[in-house]
Design brief:
The structure holds 3 protein chains of 3 kinds. By secondary structure, chain A is mainly α. Helices cover 68% and strands 0% of the residues of chain A. Chain C has one domain: Helix Hairpins. In chain C, 87% of the residues lie in helices and 0% in strands.
Chain lengths: 313, 112, 124
């Protein structure tokens, strides 16, 4: 007789809530960020428990570069609280507000309609038209293609926004947020050994994403993490923002998606529709371009805005 | 089939015990380097036992190979990060003040 | 209570904790973490809904909310990166302003009067 599988969920829930409270309350920003990285890993396990393997892979792959991004920021920003601690009446007031929000959401969760409405059958019915066996991939690239297209445009816009935050004098320079004076030899070794493996796993995630959990986002996030690792160990440097190749890599995904979508108006009677005979190759093309652009965009987002070389004594 | 399940349960339980021991070490050991040591033990041996236990359940050949690759990757990354943490502790000085050491070790736990 | 409901409640709790952190966090970086916690809580509620729908429809999880969460995660990362860049830049600008004011002070009151804007940025 096996114990109730729900027993595995309770510790995860308690760990998430305890970590969340701790990382709001703890003293040092750096500890909070490391706690947040651990939190992300637990959330990835929770996604597995919820049966959403595609989301679990995305969460785990993004968690690593998120931790890197925030840790580098904490190192540059220092650790001082920016202002006096809030007064007790204010804390109580905000606490009540947050409690009310939580209570409202909890009521919503507990009164969800029964039987649960879902689109599983609708997706399964149309899925054969996309030649993809992974329903999540079919939703991303075909049924909700507009969302995915806009999302890749948002990534490109975020990089443009990030670049424009740099100092005026630094425009055209390369990003330097990941630069360190002397990378640890162990880090250099890791940055030599891990990226080849990461490249293989990334391509595998992209390729297998058609039929199994995985896909352009997961693969792109993993590839971006490998690139960031190489930059962190100073085995390579981020390209200067005036580099044309970088810009092409950044925009290729949205552009290919957009052009194929527009071609659909002529060839398949609707924007973002694919002609039947070419569905699979077109989807593959879109996803390959998307993987590349997601990887470029995420790596550039970690690398930070363009900056002048630091004139430190 | 049932023997494979027993094998898995025994080895994964043993691995979980190593993780528990590593956690106790992380919480109780007095200084950062010993805490790091406890953590590495848990990582390498605990995960090794869990992986070997799960091999009995994995599909041949790709499931098995993926599990082994996973273990090797964790050993590589665990070794490298352990080295880096120890290097950072060394660079911070031979006798840092007690509460700072505590922080560093807790941080080390947080990265796993 | 089903596992999906349990995680849904967990998500509700995380939104509350994250909101508190986003309003009253000790530093800007901590408020950003709180904001991310809020997002994570919302995604978990999505996950609970997807799990319920999936089980009702004969699959592990409803693919449509899953796809939305995946795009949401990537956009949340992009927003965080942008916010971090703004924070770092803000700190640098403040430091420059502070250094300019510090340089102006020893030269006496005439120097401070000659550069009133450095006082303005320092106080801001």
């Amino acid at each position: 007789m096996l114990p109730d599988p729900r027993l595995a969920d309770l510790p995860l829930v308690v760990a998430l809530l305890a970590l969340a409270l701790w990382l709001i309350a703890t003293r040092h920003d750096r500890s909070a960020i490391i706690g947040f990285t651990a939190y992300g890993l637990i959330v990835a396990i929770v996604w597995v428990r919820l049966g959403a393997l595609d989301v679990a892979l995305t969460e785990a792959a993004l968690g690593g570069i998120m931790g890197l991004l925030l840790l580098m920021a904490a190192a540059r920003l220092g650790d001082a609280p920016d202002g006096p601690p809030p007064t007790w009446p204010l804390r109580v007031l905000v606490g009540l507000l947050c409690g009310a929000v939580t209570a409202g959401l909890a009521v919503l969760v507990l009164t969800l309609p029964e039987p649960a409405p879902n689109l599983v059958a609708a997706v399964a019915e149309q899925q054969s038209a996309t030649a993809l066996k992974n329903p999540v991939a079919a939703v991303l690239v075909a049924f909700r293609a507009v969302d995915t297209l806009l999302e890749s445009a948002v990534l490109a816009l975020a990089v443009i926004g990030l670049w424009s935050v740099g100092a005026d004098a630094a425009w055209g320079e390369r990003p330097r947020a990941l630069d360190s004076d002397a990378p640890d030899p162990a880090l250099v070794l890791l940055a030599r050994l891990l990226p080849p493996v990461g490249l293989v796993v990334g391509v595998h995630l992209f390729w297998t994403g058609a039929d199994h959990p995985g896909g352009p986002f997961q693969a792109g996030a993993l590839l971006a993490a490998m690139v960031a690792l190489v930059w962190l160990a100073r085995l390579g440097a981020p390209p200067p923002v005036r580099s044309r190749l970088t810009r092409v890599g950044l925009m290729l995904g949205p552009l290919v998606f957009l052009l194929i979508g527009l071609a659909g108006v002529v060839a398949a009677d609707a924007y973002l529709a694919y002609p039947e005979a070419l569905t699979k190759p077109l989807i593959l093309l879109i996803e390959a371009a998307k993987t590349l652009s997601v990887a470029v965009a995420l790596a550039l987002l970690v690398a930070g805005p363009p900056a002048l070389p630091r004139a430190r004594p | 089939m049932i023997w494979a399940d027993v094998f898995t349960v025994v080895l994964v339980t043993a691995g979980a015990l190593f993780f528990f021991a590593g956690w106790v070490g992380l919480m109780r050991f007095p200084d950062s380097l010993s805490r790091l040591h406890a953590l590495s033990k848990a990582d390498n041996l605990g995960l090794g036992l869990v992986v070997v236990g799960l091999l009995a359940q994995a599909s041949w050949p790709y499931g098995v190979l993926k599990l082994i690759a996973l273990w090797l990757l964790v050993i590589l990354v665990g070794g490298a990060t352990g080295q880096m943490l120890a290097g950072a502790l060394h660079a911070a000085g031979p006798t840092p003040e007690p509460d700072r050491r505590g922080d560093a070790a807790r941080d080390a736990g947080g990265t796993r | 209570m089903t596992a999906a409901e349990l995680y849904g409640l967990c998500g509700a709790g995380l939104v509350g904790v994250g909101l508190y952190g986003a309003i009253l966090g000790r530093s800007a970086l901590r408020r950003l973490l709180g904001f991310n916690l809020m997002g994570s809580g919302v995604f978990l509620i999505f996950g609970a809904v997807a799990r319920r729908g999936g089980l009702a429809g004969g699959s592990a999880s409803d693919p449509v909310p899953q796809a939305l969460v995946i795009t949401g995660l990537v956009v949340a990362f992009a927003a965080t990166a942008l916010a971090v860049a703004l924070l770092v830049r803000l700190a640098a600008v403040r430091r420059e302003a502070g250094a300019a004011r510090g340089a102006a002070l020893p030269a006496g009151a005439t120097a401070a009067a000659a550069h009133p804007e450095s006082d303005g940025t320092g106080a801001a």
